[in-house]
Amino acid sequence: MKHLYLTDDHEIFRSSLRKFLEKEAYPYYEQWEEERMIPRSFWTKMGQQGYLCPDIDEQYGGSEVDWGFSVIINEELERVGSSLVGIGLHNDIVVPYLTAFGTDEQKKRWLPKCATGEIITAIAMTEPGTGSDLANIKTTAVLKDDHYVLNGQKTFITNGIQSDLVVVACKTDPKANPKHKGVSLLVVERDAPGFSRGRKLNKVGLHAQDTAELIFEDCLVPKENLLGEEGKGFLYLMDKLQQERLLVAIAAQTASEVMLKQTMDYVKSREAFGKPVSKFQNTQFKIAEMATEVEMGRAFLDQLIAEHIGGKDIVTKVSMAKWKLTEIARNIAAECMQLHGGYGYMEEYEIARRFRDIPVASIYAGTNEIMKTIIAKNLGL
């Protein structure tokens, strides 16, 4: 199916990226899963080839290309494995905060190294007691002389261990009314006094993706590291969540396509009772159902991506896509594992890893329950 937003240049780019990943990612991915980390060397190789932050200005090391190139990067990384999600977070979630709200000085200081992979970024919103309710975060930052003094703890932070630059949501005015007007964004650098990493979290899936706790104890952050204006952090977060949730939908759709193809190949080759498993009506019906959901999901997603690239406000439909496509992916993972029989439960078959990796997509970037709340609100209910 021809994507609505892609040209021949995009397809040439996809071909070159696939060749790169076939050499630099696919052969090592299982090793990375066992080691529980994507090596920094892979990040720098991505940067050398122009696969990091391709849409930023050339003066900062980017290529100033349209967002369709980022979509391709995220799709192809997901085909390798879901643990590469941290690269998409760096390219298309964290760095856009810097390009949209950073000063010229901040951009010159950070963006070139973000594009080369010398700087790995993270965003710290979630706290041990606060997830979707961002207006009630407890991390505080008090301005004293030329520094903010940052105190608090964050958890479930993607790229938490390797990050060199962390955009931290904090309260600069804990008494603000309404509460969200007290939220600001501070950029904390790796060597900031008082900044430390807690546990590297042991997750059900996404084993190669480093996820960690971050701790700020009287952490000193130069006032020049305030991103945008004080008190507007909540609005900045809301402004960028559309793209973040679209990324999750893209990954879920891609995973569904990969799992369906792998399972079709398997049932054609696996025999039972003297014939391929694909010849049984139950198998055919299950595959037909999944193939239909995948086709419908792709059509809806491609339309959304085209509208997003066109600058349209599609928050409601993105919330629909994030919810529905992650749910479809979770169901497809279960169905495909079942069609693999006992082999589906074996680690050497990729479906076992996909089965572990998929469920979290229903939770992060706003739970699917929050997505339904947003949809209902925007429908006027």
From TrEMBL:
InterPro entries: Acyl-CoA_dehydrogenase (IPR050741), Acyl-CoA_DH_CS (IPR006089), Acyl-CoA_Oxase/DH_mid-dom (IPR006091), Acyl-CoA_Oxase/DH_mid-dom_sf (IPR046373), AcylCo_DH-like_C (IPR036250), AcylCo_DH/oxidase_C (IPR009075), AcylCoA_DH/ox_N (IPR013786), AcylCoA_DH/ox_N_sf (IPR037069)
Gene Ontology cellular-component terms listed: cytoplasm
UniProt source species: Falsibacillus albus
Summary of the function given for this chain in its UniProt record: Catalyzes the dehydrogenation at the alpha-beta position of ACP-bound acyl chains. This results in the introduction of a double bond in the lipidic chain, which is further transferred to the epsilon-amino group of lysine residue in the mycobactin core by MbtK.
Domain Acyl-CoA oxidase/dehydrogenase middle span(s) in chain numbering: 122-219
MF GO annotations: acyl-CoA dehydrogenase activity; flavin adenine dinucleotide binding
Record protein name field: Acyl-[acyl-carrier-protein] dehydrogenase MbtN
Pathways per UniProt: Siderophore biosynthesis; mycobactin biosynthesis
Matching Pfam families: Acyl-CoA_dh_1, Acyl-CoA_dh_M, Acyl-CoA_dh_N
